[in-house]
């Protein structure tokens, strides 16, 4: 007969070497390059600072408030701490290799709270807001926070998932303008152009990727699937907006009827 202790789920509230090794299969925490600890209920980052060679870290969907243990991760390139309870990101100022930071869905109070990141010369992407998952921060209530951040971080290429400079920024702005036009119902002569039935560009299963034991491939697989998921959500939203606009314009173009 199994004891109650054996039936209990493991406690992940604090990161330990046992947790790190069990999640990665590594015998030495210094060998860990990629680490995904998403939605485990983690409150205390514990010994994560011992993973000194860590390059990519996903701590999204937990209850983290203190980032101090991350200060020793000098080789960290990508950090996702979205959907936690973080208000102070000053410990990240020591992560000198950091290129991408996602802190959407936290408690960052103001743009001044981000000044500590100015020393990170390689930082190219910051995310404080994610409309796909309805993640935000108190700082995002400031209507000019985006302009302030762009002035504060002149090397930033991507802000809140939107490319602001470099290759692709013009295309993004064009798509954004088209989207705004659709939402506003601004159509030429008040009519929607007739569009042919949409057909898939490729056959079913074309984008499927076979899983691999290679950690780098697995990480790329995860990121690719995240992008696909976001694209599907955006596609569904666009379909709803177009449908609503069609109904609105259709109602406006119908002749008035009067009761006899």
Automatic annotation (TrEMBL):
Keyword Repeat: yes
SUPFAM superfamilies attached to this UniProt entry: L domain-like
Keywords, ordered alphabetically: Leucine-rich repeat, Repeat
InterPro entries noted in UniProt: Leu-rich_rpt, LRR_dom_sf
Keyword set includes Repeat: yes
Domain of life: Eukaryota
Record's signal peptide: none
Any Pfam family: LRR_9
PANTHER family with a match to the protein in the record: LEUCINE RICH REPEAT PROTEIN, LEUCINE-RICH REPEAT-CONTAINING PROTEIN 61
Protein name per the record: Leucine-rich repeat-containing protein 61
Lineage: Eukaryota, Metazoa, Chordata, Craniata, Vertebrata
């Amino acid at each position: 007969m199994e004891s109650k202790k054996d039936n209990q789920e493991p406690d992940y509230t604090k990161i330990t070497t046992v947790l790190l090794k069990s999640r990665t299969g590594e015998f030495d925490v210094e060998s860990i390059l990629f680490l995904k600890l998403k939605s485990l209920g983690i409150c205390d980052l514990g010994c994560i600072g011992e993973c000194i060679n860590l390059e990519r870290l996903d701590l999204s969907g937990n209850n983290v408030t203190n980032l101090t243990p991350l200060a020793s991760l000098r080789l960290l390139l990508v950090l996702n701490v979205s959907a936690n309870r973080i208000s102070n990101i000053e410990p990240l100022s020591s992560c000198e290799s950091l290129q991408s930071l996602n802190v959407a869905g936290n408690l960052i109070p103001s743009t001044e709270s981000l000044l500590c990141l100015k020393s990170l010369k390689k930082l190219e992407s910051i995310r404080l807001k994610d409309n796909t998952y309805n993640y935000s921060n108190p700082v995002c209530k400031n209507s000019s926070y985006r302009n302030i951040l762009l002035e504060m971080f002149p090397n930033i290429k991507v802000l809140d998932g939107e490319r602001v400079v470099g290759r692709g920024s013009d295309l993004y702005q064009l798509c954004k303008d088209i989207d705004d036009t659709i939402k506003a119902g601004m159509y030429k002569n008040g009519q929607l152009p007739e569009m042919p039935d949409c057909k898939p560009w490729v056959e079913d299963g074309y984008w499927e990727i076979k899983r691999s034991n290679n950690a780098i491939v697995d990480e790329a697989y995860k990121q690719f699937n995240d992008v696909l998921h976001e694209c599907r959500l955006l596609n569904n939203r666009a379909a709803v907006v177009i449908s609503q606009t069609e109904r609105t314009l259709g109602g406006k173009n119908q002749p008035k009827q009067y009761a006899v």
